[in-house]
Each structure stands twice: as C-alpha cells, then as structure tokens.
Design brief:
Blueprint lengths: L1 E11 L4 H11 L3 E10 L2 E11 L3 H11 L4 E6 L3 H5 L2 E11 L4 H11 L3 E12 L4 E13 L4 H11 L4 E4 L1
Length: 169
C-alpha cells in the first residue's frame, strides 16, 4: 500500500541541487506528485508531495538524510486535493499589461506565489496602434484559497506585476 506525505527540505542552494534531490527520491521508489521550490540569498526551501510504499518509508527517511547530510528534512501528512480546495474560490481573471520578454512566465510565477491553482491560462499579444506598443493579455481560470476574494487577488497581481491591470470576470 502507498502512503502520501509531504517532505520539507531546507539548506544551501547549489547548482543542480533540486535535480539531484528529485533523482534521489525517484531512485528510492518515491513518486513526486507535486513540488514547490523557493530560493532566497543562497538558500532554498522545497516542499514535495510524494507517494511511496508504506513499508519503505523508514528506510527512505534514513537514506535521504544520510545522502544529503547538509540539508534539513521534515515530514508530514499530505492534505488531499478535496481537503485543500474545500473552502476555495474559483475565479476567472483577465490580466493585461505591456508586453515584454518573459511576461508569460512572470504572470504564472505571480499566480503561483499567491498560492493560486491555475486551471487554465490562455495568453495573447496584440499591437495597439493608439498606444504604439504591444499589449499582453492572459485569461486565467484559477482556484484561490478561501480567504482571498477576486478583489484581493486582482490587487496582489497588480502590485506584483509592473503596469498590470486585472479584471475579475
């Protein structure tokens, strides 16, 4: 029988560190179901939701800690998707801003930072003659935590993305 749990990993950020960790998890029979990584000033923290045969969990924990002795690990129960989205708000957003290289990735990263689950995102670029520039537009269907309403989400995105205008539709 498989068990699903969350691993929190913290330590110095080194080139290729995440790839090495994911490979080590897979070599030990763990399936990485989802993950998030955050980096700050040479440090990194990662959350990984993994599935593993229940009988392998003890040896898995020992091997991982032994192989990466410069990292700190903690383990906890996973929350199922149903529990996580029970008190969530579904909303559709339209994000408009000046187009520039990498804007699509920037908008997606902002949505992730706000802990929004992106169900779909359609992006387009359009030359606006009156402005003399190209405008980027993204139509997003997202699930927000229950404490965030559309106005709060729009305000956060506008604050984090230079020149963005967000409409909740």
């Amino acid at each position: 029988m498989k068990t699903v749990f969350v691993i929190t990993i913290h330590g110095a950020d080194k080139r290729g560190r995440i790839e090495t960790l994911v490979e080590a998890l897979r070599q030990q029979g763990a399936a990485v179901l989802s993950s998030k990584v955050m980096r700050l000033d040479g440090q990194m923290s990662a959350l990984c939701k993994v599935a593993l045969a229940e009988k392998k969990k003890e040896s898995f924990v020992a091997e991982l800690s032994g192989k990466f002795c410069d990292l700190q690990f903690s383990y906890g129960p996973a929350i199922t998707d149903n529990e996580n989205t029970h008190h969530a708000n579904r909303m559709n957003l339209v994000v408009d801003c000046t187009n520039h290289a990498g804007i699509q990735d920037e908008v997606y990263e902002v949505l992730e930072r706000l802990m929004l689950k992106v169900e779909s995102m359609e992006c387009s670029r359009c030359r606006v003659a009156g402005l003399g520039e190209t405008v980027f537009s993204a139509r997003c269907a997202v699930i927000a935590p229950g404490h965030l309403d559309g106005e709060a989400v729009a305000g956060e995105i506008e604050a984090l993305t230079a020149g963005a205008r967000v409409n909740v539709v």
